[in-house]
Amino acid sequence: MNIGQAAKASGVSAKMIRYYEQTGLIPVADRKESGYRDYSDADVHRFRFIRRARDLGFSVAEIQDLLSLWNDRSRQSADVKRIASAHIAVLNARIASLRQMSETLQTLIACCAGDNRPDCPILMDLEETSEAPPTGVRSAGGVGQLKSRV
């Protein structure tokens, strides 16, 4: 099947299939005499595997490792579990970071009168030049300092 058919069957766009091929995540496709890529049902199955892994937030490098394990029938499930467990730790850190951002924004919104005055605690907080944590999330201390200025 051609790339359009493979994309439709797998739910992965033709552009992403080309990208995965370019980065080595998938093997270079066979070509027909016409030069068009030719994909098999096994390729489509691999694309679905990749799509599902991407939906779960795995990086391309992690997916490469998972594909290697998927193709290795002598694999140990402990290796797969290790990758998935490490990924959960990353997801939990992102969740904590997003929660902290949400709480900070909720506090800033609560401090804002939302009236016709130009004073805006949200903008005042954004203009602060103090160094932010590496995750880009402002600590609750910054919000507390803001409250004293409002």
Describe this structure in words.
- The chain is mainly alpha-helical.
- It has a domain at 1-75: Multidrug-efflux Transporter Regulator, Chain: A, Domain 2, CATH 1.10.1660.10.
- The chain is built from 7 helices and 2 strands, in the order H-H-E-E-H-H-H-H-H.
- The chain has helices at residues 3-10, 14-23, 41-55, 60-71, 77-111, 121-127, 140-149; strands at 30-31, 37-38.
- A two-stranded antiparallel sheet has the order 1-2.
- Strand 1 (30-31) and strand 2 form a beta hairpin.
- Helix 1 crosses helix 3 (41-55) and helix 5 (77-111) runs parallel beside helix 7 (140-149).
- The N and C termini lie far apart (64 Å).
- The model is unreliable at 136-150 (pLDDT under 50).
- It is found in: Cytoplasm.
- InterPro entries: CueR, DNA-bd_dom_put_sf, MerR-type_HTH_dom, MerR_fam, Tscrpt_reg_MerR_DNA-bd.
- Residues 131-150 are annotated as: Disordered.
- Keywords: Cytoplasm, DNA-binding, Transcription, Transcription regulation.
- Residues 1-69 form the HTH merR-type domain.
CATH architecture annotation of the domain at 1-75: Orthogonal Bundle
What does the average pLDDT come to? 87
Query: Could you give the order of strands across the largest sheet?
Result: 1-2
Q: What separation lies between the terminal Cα atoms?
A: 64 Å
Counted beta strands: 2
Label the structural class: mainly alpha
Largest sheet: 2 strands, antiparallel
Q: If helices are DSSP runs of H or I spanning 4 or more residues, what is the number of helices?
A: 7
Tell me, what's the shape? elongated
Could you state the order of secondary-structure elements as H and E?
HHEEHHHHH
| Helix fraction by DSSP (H/I, runs of at least 4) | 55-70%
Name the beta content range. Answer: under 5%
CATH-defined topology of the domain at 1-75:
Multidrug-efflux Transporter Regulator, Chain: A, Domain 2
Please give the CATH class of the domain at 1-75.
Mainly Alpha
Radius of gyration: 24 Å
Keywords: Cytoplasm, DNA-binding, Transcription, Transcription regulation
Main location: cytoplasm
Domain HTH merR-type: 1-69
GO cellular component, one term: cytoplasm
